[in-house]
Amino acid sequence: MTAARTALGLGALFGALPWLIADYHRLFVAEILIWGLFAMSVGMVYGYGGMLSFAQAVFFGWGCWGYNVASFLLQWNTWGALALAMTAAAVFAVPIGYIATRVRQHHFLIVTVIVSVLVSAVLSSGHWRWMAGPYVTRSLTFVPEVPLGVVRLSYANDLVAYYFTLAVVSLAFAVTWTMVQSPWGRALLAQRDNESRAALIGLDVNRLRWSMFVLAAAVAGLAGALYALLARYTNLEFFDWTYSGRAVVMAVLGGTGSLFGPFLGTAAYMLTAEMLSDVMRQSILVFAALLLIVIRVAPDGLWGLAERLAARGRS
Fold this sequence. Notes:
Blueprint: H1 2-16, H2 23-48, H3 56-73, H4 78-100, H5 106-124, E1 138-139, E2 145-148, E3 151-154, H6 158-180, H7 183-193, H8 195-200, H9 205-231, E4 233-234, H10 241-254, H11 260-277, H12 283-297, H13 301-314
Helix pairs in contact: 2-6, 2-9, 2-10, 2-11, 3-4, 3-9, 4-9, 6-9, 7-9, 10-11, 10-13, 11-12, 11-13
C-alpha cells in the first residue's frame, strides 16, 4: 500500500507540474523522466538481478535504431515505432544475456563492457556501416505525432511531448513494478541474496538472470525511443559504455533497492549538473565529491535515506 500511495502521489505531482513551472522547463522534466527510465533498467539488473551491467547503453542505442527504422523505412506510426524499438533491444539482448548471465560478479561486468565497446566499434567502422545504415545517427525530418483514434497529437506542443512521455514512462514503471512484486520477482531476489540456496530449492538461476536481463534491455530500448521522439535526433555515441556508466551513477545515487530510486538519482544528477554548469566548467568534479558523500552517508541511496527518515518520523 505504501508503494502504491507513493506512486499515486508522484503521479499527481508530475501531472500538475507542467502548470507550475516555466514552459521551457517542461521538456527538461520530460528528459529527466526518460533518463530515469534508462537508469531504472540498470537498477532492475543490479538491484533485483544482482548484475552490474555496462551494456544498457547498447540497448538504449538499439531502441533509437528501432525507432528510426520503423519511422523512416517502414513508415510506421509512433506506437509501432515504440514497439519495434523495444523488440529490437530485447532481441539483441537474448544472445548477449545468454552468455553474460552465465558468468558472475566482475566477470559479468567485463563481458558487458566488452560487448558495448565492440558494438560501438563495429557500428562506427566504415566497413560495417551497412548494419545500421542511416538509422543510428539521424535527425528527425518531421514533427512526431501520436495517433489516438481520429485525433493526432503533435510533438510541436510541449504539453503533448511532456504528457505522452509521462504516460509511457508511468506505464513502463507500473508493468515493471508488477513483475518484480510477482513470484518471479521474489525468486530473483532470492537468487541475488543467496544463489546457492536458491538453486537448492529448485530455482533456475541462470534463466531468472537471463529473463531479467532481457526485460531490462526492453526498458532501455523504450527509453531510447522516447529520447529520439523528444530530442528528434539519435547519435552513435548513445551506444558507448560511458552512457551506461552515467546510468549506473544515477541508479546508485538514488538507490537500486527500489524502482523509485533511479528516478530520484537521475533528477539529482541532472539538476545538479544543470545548476553547476553555469558556475564552473568542470562541474563533474563537484558532483563526484557529492556522490561520495551520499554513498558514505546513505549507501542505499537517496531513496533509501528518504524511506528511513519517513519511518523515523512515523515512529
